[in-house]
Design goal:
About 30% of the residues lie in helices and about 20% in strands. The structure holds beta-D-galactopyranose.
Length: about 625
Amino acid sequence: MDWPKGVDGLAYGGDYNPEQWPEEIWDDDVHLMREAGVNLVSVGVFSWSRLEPREGEYDFDWLDRVLDKLHTGGVGVNLATPTASPPPWFTLAHPDALNTRPDGVRQVHGSRDTYDVCAPAYQEASLRIAGKLAERYAEHPALAMWHVHNEYGSATYSAHAERAFRIWLQEKYETIEALNDAWWGSFWSQHYGEWDQILAPRATQYLSNPAHELDFKRFTSDAMLEHYKSQRDVLRAANPEIPITTNFVFGQWVPVDPWQWASEVDLVAFDSYPSAPDERAEQQSALHADLSRSWAGGGDWILMEQAAATIHSKDGAVAKAPGRMARHSMIHISRGSKGAMFFQWRAGRGGAEQWHSALLPHAGKHTRMFAEVAAFGNTLPGIAHTVEAPVKTDVAILWSPESWWASSGPHLPAPVDYLENVAQIHRVLRDRGVVVDFVAPEGDLSRYTTVIAPSTYVLSEAAAENLRWFTAGGGRLVASYLTGAVDEHCQVWLDGFLGGLTDLFGIRVTEHLPQPSGELRALWNFGAAERFCELVELRGAQCVTQYATGDVIENQPAVTVNPFGEGEAWYVSCKLVDEAWDRLFEELKLDGPGTRGVDVVDRGPWRFVVNHTEKEAQVGNVIVPAGSWAVNKR
Ligand code: GAL
């Protein structure tokens, strides 16, 4: 029960909002969906005010008709609970259920995500509407899957959150003294005498306490997960045969730990919105896909949303060139997604996202875009038989949401871009043709021969032991600067950092030496480092290369390797530029059949090739025209 019921092969479709349109066009929608090869649509994602126009008064008639029409047309329904956007009547009746920003300002309705997951009134109302939907639709033949909420991620710093946070802290620390110790409470007079003195980490005068901030993120992830689980359990009870998910979203602002969440959903669903118009869009798509597959841990996962015609960057949207929508979809499908879904089916006439692209543009069916959408959709059944073969790799990158959260704090020795450090390893390996998995610091490393741990700033004792065990057993570990700088309470690991793993790496890190921005520090025969360097003392490891320049670091070890048990532990004491990582991966003989701009994923007998370049690509016996893709027998 981990796949939309009744959807065979690959899923194709997107968010469908018929309630925004006159009923006359619904038949046309279903007809065009069939023409485009659409077999699954997400319905009701933000429909609360139309489903419950007044408290306790429900209007399901329109949704009945929509589901019936979709079913008759052969389109499955991924039915959402609408809790990501409570109706105006709700927030007016329960202003305390609106979310509060870190600066203490309580938001007002008028957009979306205006809710406080910790507010009892919101929790009750969410369960009520989820229960009504379950009661009415759990046995509907169109129902293929439940889509709980939308993109959990909006944190709240309200009084409700504060109360729940204190309970969470009491469960975790048991005594206030243990909390004070963990949070290093004697600094700046932050020693707490009572639980009630603890606040959410709202805006304060200057730097806040990093351990407090990190615990609040963990708490928020747990609080949102509780909200998800409470709805899931209601839906599950109504019909255990229907898979249930929620769509994960990606961003530093999202305090959700996907490793924990993944085991609570029947299949992982991910919304992929690359943020740059150039080749980084393909890099980010591949990164999103590999993360999603890894969170799913061998189970099914699906690309739940992407934009059909545009890429949204800071400067606004940029049109996707012809074929790019299909290539992005194929990046995901080749890396394991069981479909390609979009936001949204029909472009809206009004509302804040009226200019967001869609499968069916404002100009209708006779458009270049719809032709492309239909052509791709009708191709997918032809490759459905290939996607049961698993994506297998023996190389993994450690993915630590806590390191991401904690190392983005403003108090670090120099700014650290954890995501970029991870993305950099992923992109250099992808350019070398290597498909990677991601793995949690405390996750199962036994499937891998090489594990790369970029700047895993937060390292718990359990995670450190995991890395030790992996290496001792014959694994090759590559870690980079700031690894294990702090423990799970954001307290510095003493006597050489490295999460206490100085014996594993055969070194001590004795100082952090941030370098001026924009100045490169050459490494002997190894490219260069930028911004962040560390001073390393050898304690048995061999020096692979040294810094050629730089105060204090000149001629000091930059990259080291230490045999440990049956394996070896490499340490990169700086932020390398891409070419230097490439050089290191050359040394480690990490390469695969793909090349820069040509994604190749081998799965069982099948070879998926996605050619993003302007030239024809040949990989083995597979020839792929410029800007196109293919799946063939190897
Ligand atoms: C997603 C969201 C959709 C839509 C889309 C636009 O984050 O789930 O509802 O807003 O972004 O890109």
